[in-house]
Design brief:
The structure is a homodimer. By secondary structure, the first copy, chain A, is α/β, with parallel strands linked by helices. Chain A contains 13 helices and twelve strands. The first copy, chain A, binds a DNA duplex through residues 4-6, 14-18, 20-21, 23-24, 28-30, 33, 48-58.
Amino acid sequence: MSVSIKDVATKAGVSISTVSKVINNWPTISEATAERVRETMRELDYTPNRRAASFSRRASWDLAFLAPLDKGRVFADPHLFEIMCGANSYVDKKNYHLTVVDVSAQSNTVESMRDIVSGQIFDGMIVHGSAITPEIGKLIIDKNFPHILIGRPEFETGLCWVDTNHVLEGSVAARHLAGSGCRSIAFIAGSPSGKLSRERIQGFLSVSRERRISVPEGFIRYTQDDFESGYDIMRKLLKLPSPPDAVICENNSTAIWVLKALKDGGAALPEDVSLVTFDDYPLSHLMDPKPTVVDIDVFDLGFQAGRALLQKIRNPELQIQSYTTLPRLIQRSTTASFSGV
Amino acid sequence: MSVSIKDVATKAGVSISTVSKVINNWPTISEATAERVRETMRELDYTPNRRAASFSRRASWDLAFLAPLDKGRVFADPHLFEIMCGANSYVDKKNYHLTVVDVSAQSNTVESMRDIVSGQIFDGMIVHGSAITPEIGKLIIDKNFPHILIGRPEFETGLCWVDTNHVLEGSVAARHLAGSGCRSIAFIAGSPSGKLSRERIQGFLSVSRERRISVPEGFIRYTQDDFESGYDIMRKLLKLPSPPDAVICENNSTAIWVLKALKDGGAALPEDVSLVTFDDYPLSHLMDPKPTVVDIDVFDLGFQAGRALLQKIRNPELQIQSYTTLPRLIQRSTTASFSGV
DNA sequence: TGAAAATAGTACAACGCTTTCCCAAAAAAG
DNA sequence: CTTTTTTGGGAAAGCGTTGTACTATTTTCA
């Protein structure tokens, strides 16, 4: 069998408690004995049994990361994994481990959630917003299980979350365009029912009002997940009696088609039309011209989620609800330099 | 405090052994008592403490997934995460959990490896090939720790691995082109030192010999990670006295530039030149024309790794070294239909 | 010098479950 | 009806730590 704390104690001529205290750096052990014990541990090639330790301590140093992990997810939603890496990078430093838990359609989400909040395997969890339903929210609150949601839930509960401020993202894009002289801006979004679209449009509109930028009827359009339709939308916008002098695309895939439409329509960037998209991507390097984007550091978002969760574990009363990661403008060749306020 | 097996036993009027046996579906308990115990568990809202169980059983049902998880990794290597999802999808069904462990440059890989193989936290591990050095390989073998590597290691040890057969990928690409009538094929690879390039080229060459396809000096070229250089390489190939009638690109990013070069050079696809790339990607939908690719189901690769690991855990003597996932050709508009053998 | 306080280490009861060995009662066999 | 076998269930010994309460020794201080 493998060597245990008992073997070390016997060999070093001390009690089990002493060895335990050496392992955990208790201050009440003299440096002399501590060193002797450590030496013995090395000699025996002893490693503490973390299973036993976590059982005894009633803490596992394991955290769950709940997200949809079905086939093809990485390509559909790379951010998810970047968030995971960020979260891991924080908690790892504090000696926690991150365990992935699938909550995609083919998994029994409610069951696994129930296991997690009451199975005493995990000390806490980070949950990707898309997995949250009111039922699950209630479960978490009832059990008072340490958690951080990525993304503010649509309904109000007492749940803790971190998020990026999508309204602000919309504002940043609009303000940049306004600052570089654009006076009439179109917005090509995904779907009117999406939270992301709604909030970014909201930010865009608030800046429009503030800067007295016209947003005529029909300047806010939706691709409804058919990115290619961005081409037609843009062509039609260009043919308007007074076409927009700037367009904000909600994603890069749409932007590719919009750029093509602009090229085919003979519009020069940024002279005739400026363009801003969201979420920088390696893809950007393949686009021509390379677009100005409003980017979010999703790794950092995960990092902040990890930090928030450990805070919450230490102090379960904490009510954490905050926009931790700010958007950042990366200017490339589809917009003119910021010339104004 | 939370409710334990003891509370259930008392309330149901049985011994704790009986409750334990009910939980673990031992056959020696009558259905009548079993149901009574289950009923009591429901009443008390009891969930077995998995920490205690795994301590007592000396098995945690936790598996480690070791891979580089540094910032930007998702975009640099999305396959990694698709593999992870695949592995999780298998082991999850068998009630195992997957825990991520960073082995990127900023982590102390050897240390975490040592912890894992002797800390008794994990029952096994899946290791992304890039993390393996001879030193680490030796550590794993010495401790005889259940493991599966993703990717055959470059040096021979007794380590267990699953991989896709890159040689075969090269063959599939070449055979498809040969079958559709191409007689002179160029290969634009990444770097001569890369295992991926080497093996795919090897497969390509073996088919070339077999089918007597000419591969003149200079038909095998390297972008050296500068994808954009694919443009110049292709332009020059086109200007040759006898240019290739097909080109194999090792990745889609290069293919984008090669396609542009073909378009600018006035070559029609697939009439003048055929093109095949590797690794299908959402990106493909943005390319014009859409390329024929030799694809590997990396989700399945992860899935097979999960399966292999659980086999290995059950039977530690097993020597698992196999190419589990076969390449698959997805024909699109850059090649003519397979017309030959 | 003697009492109080600080220091260094020990004994031992948890922690919640698994699992082996054992026993009683019921069923089957004689 | 006994004896043997089968069945259902219980008692208790771990599993490897932690952490509290305690003791013995040394130091400090009046």
